[in-house]
């Protein structure tokens, strides 16, 4: 395993910030990797099929509160980590400590420490950029993949205008309200208490550094430093014959249509019941969580 980065200036969101989360009664678990504490929610039977729920930007595991109960009721073990810089996980206080590569290293180390196997990966947004690399780095740990509103860009394709605008906003706007940003990506919106829950991990600007810098790490040019690693991951998926299912939203302006590339290039995607999630925005876990969980359960049952 590659050497983990050394981080010396670390922030930790006070636990009191998470005292009134609606519909999210789950106690966090903590794993320390490279001096950083990574939080995760781990619910359901220990011997149930593992469903790894990877969130994106600028959310955290709270995003999965509508899916976890459905998965657990079906006998699955639902595990939702918080990426470094998000949720209850530690937050490096310097922007220079964050990178795409570092996130992959941290989550690979977390996965190895947790020693999870037979995993069904569900990934969306940055959860897919990181999660799909985790699969490529340890394919023996994964039994199947469900990709939703995400991908594995190499910097050689077109960049959607909606993403360019989002990246510019994250980089330059003096106003960066996390909860309102998530709400804008939901077709159904959010209640005030849900909006507050998305704000909870980020009490001030220093805690929001990861959310600010992540859009700039998406490979958008051929000379991106992560292009080679993502192309190596694509090479693996071009041979991937385990089940691979796509669940993309009809109302996501950033990733809409991105499922076709995976359906065409991944052998394990052939013959799968790929589904367009109608009426859902970018954060389909919010808009159609139980429906999405149902598709995961059906895939495992097959």
Q: Could you please describe the fold and organization of this structure?
A:
The protein has helices spanning 68-73, 100-114, 126-137, 161-172, 178-184, 192-199, 209-213, 227-237, 259-265, 284-301; strands at residues 10-11, 29-33, 36-43, 50-54, 77-81, 91-92, 119-124, 142-148, 244-249, 275-277. The protein has 302 residues and is α/β, with parallel strands linked by helices. It has a single domain, classed as Rossmann fold (3-Layer(aba) Sandwich), CATH 3.40.50. The strands form two sheets. The protein has an eight-stranded mixed beta sheet with strand order 2-3-5-4-7-8-9-10, sandwiched between helices. A two-stranded antiparallel sheet has the order 1-6. α2 (100-114) crosses α3 (126-137) and α3 packs across α8. The protein is globular, with a radius of gyration of 18 Å. It starts with 9 loop residues before the first strand and ends with a helix. The mean pLDDT is 97.
The low-pLDDT segments are none
User: Widest sheet: strand order?
Assistant: 2-3-5-4-7-8-9-10
First and last CA, distance: 33 Å
Strand content: 15-25%
Question: What is the overall silhouette?
Answer: globular
Please compute the radius of gyration using only Cα atoms: 18 Å
CATH level-1 class: Alpha Beta
Profile the largest sheet: 8 strands, mixed
Average pLDDT, rounded to a whole number, is 97
Classified in CATH, the superfamily is: Alpha/Beta hydrolase fold, catalytic domain
Number of domains: 1
Number of strands: 10
The secondary structure category is alpha/beta
| Number of H- or I-type helical stretches | 10
CATH architecture: 3-Layer(aba) Sandwich
Order of helices and strands: EEEEHEEHEHEHHHHHEHEH
Helix content: 25-40%
Tell me the CATH topology.
Rossmann fold
């Amino acid at each position: 395993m590659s050497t983990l980065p050394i981080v010396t200036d670390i922030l930790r969101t006070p636990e009191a910030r998470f005292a009134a989360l609606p519909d999210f009664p789950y106690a966090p678990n903590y794993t320390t990797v490279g001096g950083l504490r990574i939080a995760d929610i781990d619910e359901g039977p220990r011997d149930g099929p593992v469903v790894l729920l990877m969130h994106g930007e600028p959310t955290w595991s709270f995003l999965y509160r509508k899916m976890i109960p459905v998965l657990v009721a079906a006998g699955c073990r639902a595990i939702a980590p918080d990426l470094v810089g998000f949720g209850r996980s530690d937050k490096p206080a310097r922007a220079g400590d964050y990178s795409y590569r570092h996130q992959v290293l941290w989550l690979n180390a977390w996965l190895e420490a947790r020693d999870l196997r037979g995993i069904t990966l569900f990934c969306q947004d940055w959860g897919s950029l990181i999660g799909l690399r985790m699969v490529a780095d340890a394919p023996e740990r994964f039994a199947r993949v469900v990709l939703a509103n995400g991908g594995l860009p190499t910097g050689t394709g077109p960049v959607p205008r909606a993403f360019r605008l989002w990246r510019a906003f994250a980089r330059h706007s003096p106003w960066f309200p996390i909860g309102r940003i998530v709400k804008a990506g939901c077709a159904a919106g959010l209640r005030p208490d849900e909006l507050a829950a998305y704000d909870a991990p980020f009490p001030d600007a220093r805690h929001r550094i990861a959310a600010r810098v992540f859009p700039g790490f998406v490979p958008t040019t051929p000379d991106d430093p992560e292009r080679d690693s993502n192309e190596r991951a694509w090479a693996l998926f071009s041979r991937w014959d385990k089940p691979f299912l796509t669940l993309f939203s009809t109302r996501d302006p950033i990733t809409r249509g991105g499922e076709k590339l995976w359906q065409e290039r991944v052998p394990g995607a052939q013959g799968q019941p790929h589904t367009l999630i109608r009426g859902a925005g970018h954060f389909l876990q919010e808009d159609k969580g139980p429906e999405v969980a149902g598709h995961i359960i059906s895939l495992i049952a097959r």
